[in-house]
Amino acid sequence: MSESEKRQTLEALAALVRYHILTSTTRADSGHPTSALSAVELMTGLLFGGIFRYDIPRPRHPNNDRLIFSKGHAAPLLYALWAAAGALTEADLRTYRQFGSLLEGHPTTRLPYVEAATGSLGQGLSVGLGIALNAKHLDGLPYRTYVLLGDSEMAEGSQWEAIQIAASYGLNNLVGILDVNRLGQRGETQYGHDLSAYSLRVGAFGWKTMEIDGHSFPEIIDAYKAVFAETDRPVMIIAHTTKGKGVATLEDQDGWHGKALDEAQLQEALAGLGNIDRSIRGHIEPPEDKQPPMPLPGEYETKTNYEIGQAVPTRNAYGSALKRIYPGYPQLVSLDGEVSNSTRAKAFKEFYPERFFEMYIAEQNMVGAALGLSTRGKLPFVSTFGAFFTRAFDQIRMSQYSDANIKIVGSHAGVSIGQDGPSQMALEDIAMFRSILHSVVLYPADAVATEKLVEAAAGHPGIVYIRTHRGPTPVIYDDQASFAIGGSSVPRYSDEDTGTIVAAGVTLHEALAAHEMLKAEGTYMRVIDLYSVQPLDTQTLRRSAAQTRFFIEEISRNAIVRRVHEILRAQ
Amino acid sequence: MSESEKRQTLEALAALVRYHILTSTTRADSGHPTSALSAVELMTGLLFGGIFRYDIPRPRHPNNDRLIFSKGHAAPLLYALWAAAGALTEADLRTYRQFGSLLEGHPTTRLPYVEAATGSLGQGLSVGLGIALNAKHLDGLPYRTYVLLGDSEMAEGSQWEAIQIAASYGLNNLVGILDVNRLGQRGETQYGHDLSAYSLRVGAFGWKTMEIDGHSFPEIIDAYKAVFAETDRPVMIIAHTTKGKGVATLEDQDGWHGKALDEAQLQEALAGLGNIDRSIRGHIEPPEDKQPPMPLPGEYETKTNYEIGQAVPTRNAYGSALKRIYPGYPQLVSLDGEVSNSTRAKAFKEFYPERFFEMYIAEQNMVGAALGLSTRGKLPFVSTFGAFFTRAFDQIRMSQYSDANIKIVGSHAGVSIGQDGPSQMALEDIAMFRSILHSVVLYPADAVATEKLVEAAAGHPGIVYIRTHRGPTPVIYDDQASFAIGGSSVPRYSDEDTGTIVAAGVTLHEALAAHEMLKAEGTYMRVIDLYSVQPLDTQTLRRSAAQTRFFIEEISRNAIVRRVHEILRAQ
């Protein structure tokens, strides 16, 4: 094909993509057509201009280039592109925004061409960073990761975390495409059409930047080709675009964010597009068939090595477990927010430095990157102080819509860290993680339980949170004890139990002490170690409810004893 | 005093400050002496070098300059400075990190010289931004806000949100002091001692930057003086410092983060400091006595204006309430994350543009800035989609330790927004806000309840969250109905009630519909509108528990009816 024929094909595809954007949003009577229209050439050029490599029948092909719409509200464009590629039909597009459709208002991974769910702005670049990290620093694969960014979302700090860390890992396989269409949801963005405002900032962080006309195919294709020359810098293509491009009444107009055309407006808009050839399809070359390393799980030491009564911080057991189980979970990687000496991820890092990623004090990007690694089959364990995961709640929340397989380990739980003060204490972490649908929340009381539950977490697909302590707690379980997600342990029980003390983590040791104090008075109390805070072992709880007269949950031994006395006096 | 005498005084004060840092941390056997030592000259020069204006007996003086330790772990330095100023005694310093002391491991506002609690990194600059915004754009006061920053925390995205927004508001009264001591908690930072890495980035965002030797008083004082010349740019002083400065065995040494010296090491370190004059005191000039505007609450329309049955989104009532009550709450300001047309903060903005602050899509900084405004007596209402407040959970969490008086309003609650998809839905917001100690969580069902509860929130000191809907719900209350924090409403009840349906917000309308469906079958169900999710009206709940046989909580009318049928069959 000659250059001019190529150009004509791209123009025809762009018109078809616009046709799909406009018709699907009008049919749904909602969506964001204007935000989709501004990036039509940028994305059409990428997918169909000989740049993008993708095996359409095999969306999970390890060498496929990856495309993330960080500006998730441009979803109509994403769906239109895959329709133009022949991967979706017009019938599929008609389901856009309908209940049950894979084509949701913002992309989710229910659609196989979506790498990660987006829609909460400023998250796509971190996910892309994780995916690019996988290609460059783990699997040695040739794929590139392209992230479409909106100009408004550049105000999110998470973007700058990702920009900074991507540069420090030299991710020349990560490409940001910044669609500077000037208009946000409620008017002009901070920098309007000043492309240099973006290139100055992004360039200062160590990226290669290019400023282009985002509606000119030659400039677009040249920019993508220039990416190939980079060896150690990520690239940001900063494109001057027009919101609503291609529809005269919408172009560069305020007040059209997130609004579909009505039927009459649609007809007028379609007429303005000229002749649309709905039968043409864009061609995407598949990638080479290079296989990533696929290490098989090997044998590993399954025995833990502690003495009953030995004082060990559960965070130490976390580090030791990671190191111990890795041969059995060869996809395991560790990410930490510049506190690996405190979380004890350091124990893993020292043995497997190539599987450890320093993510610095930037928790949002760390969780986003972990999600990216997880989408490429890795098993990320992410650690910082439990308190600081509140920083990444939005990323954690969003990861549930991307079938995330990430293990989050928060240290320094609870008031027991004492004198460092409340800023360092994880107090809200259990409530936070429990609010995530299908998440698992584990709170082990000793080193053995921690080691076993780290292992259970590694084998459990999904989002798992493990809470560890800074200070030492005595080992109370031997290596034969078993711990399961959804399980519990009953370290003290008898047929004479009056009531039940429920505890987990550090409070279990208070419960055990209270048990002894009450036993000395002749009162037998059952003690349940409810280490699986979610899901809960309701069976054991119900059994105790039937067998004992009351339940107690308090944070100190004295409070437990006092409360039991009160209850017994009242009865 | 001659220049050389001034210099000698500063050197003597710096030695005294070092003495306090070392002795207090050794006495506590914990804390972060090395992170405090690196900034001794930077802070001694600021407070005692004729720059800082502060009326020590009146920490709440409206014209006091403000100092925030964003690197909160340098708390021993903060306390040592105020001791050197004569505001704290050596006896006070001896309580550092003791239970009950005002001198906590990381600063909190229990100590009157602390503007905001810090310790979770990357938050101080946003708080400072709010304080500076107050001086420049609200009260027209001459004070400056100084924020001490660590180099590691510059990786936090929240910093770049604050840096970007501070520049866009032209805050020449905001000064960042970046203590580049090269070493983080677990080794070297990303940029080590490369000051230009920071000045390039911060400068690209529109700040004036200066690179200085952070242990040279002449350079430090000159830098602070240069700030006075700026008219529309914030200033970042980027200082090359040495971690552990002043103690030969600690200087620039890795492995000494967050560790106190033992007694023998302390004695050696103190000997190295030379003669310490513990009697000298640094002088701080008080500020001028200019009064800020203190508008008195005026009269305002207390009646709302809706018809029963009228369909109104509760978000609309939020905007309308803000506008209506402002004359009665003249400290009210509105902050929004570039979605004021969706949250309806726009209704307030249109009438009172000078009280509205566009915070762009940067929720972390928005909440931090609101805290800063609140510390200066303003009454900030902060709005975005409820889902996106998860982005600022760490800032919300930390604000509870600064006695925050902020009202957070999250729109687009729940699954009822439907086709936009889960990324936009606030689903975890109630769990998140409930986890904050003493927080109030309100979820009104109609426009009248929303207006009344916005008013209740304005009058309630503390952290209040209000959840609003996108879609319209019918008005069910008349203007006479009263709504209180901790209250509830019982729109349907009779002496024959079999059970109780508990609901709030959009589900109340489902409960009312279910009530009618069941009444038609002869089953009377009480309906409680539990609009105050926290605190909960336990009295009303207990009364219903005594008067009816069971409670129901479901999200749809059909689910409620089905469940009531099941229960009645089983009984």
TrEMBL record, chains A, B:
Biological process terms in GO annotation: glyceraldehyde-3-phosphate metabolic process
Cofactor requirement: thiamine diphosphate; Mn(2+); Mg(2+); Ca(2+)
Gene3D superfamilies in the cross-refs: 3.40.50.920, 3.40.50.970
InterPro entries, sorted: THDP-binding, Transketo_C/PFOR_II, Transketolase-like, Transketolase-like_Pyr-bd, Transketolase_BS, Transketolase_C, Transketolase_CS, Transketolase_N
A GO term from the CC aspect: cytoplasm
Molecular functions (GO terms): metal ion binding; thiamine pyrophosphate binding; transketolase activity
Pfam families: Transket_pyr, Transketolase_C, Transketolase_N
Transmembrane segments: none
Signal peptide extent: none
Annotated Transketolase-like pyrimidine-binding domain residues: 312-475
Entry keyword set: Calcium, Magnesium, Metal-binding, Thiamine pyrophosphate, Transferase
Family (UniProt): Belongs to the transketolase family.
Assembly information from the UniProt record: Homodimer.
Name of the molecule in the record: Transketolase
Organism: Desulfatitalea alkaliphila
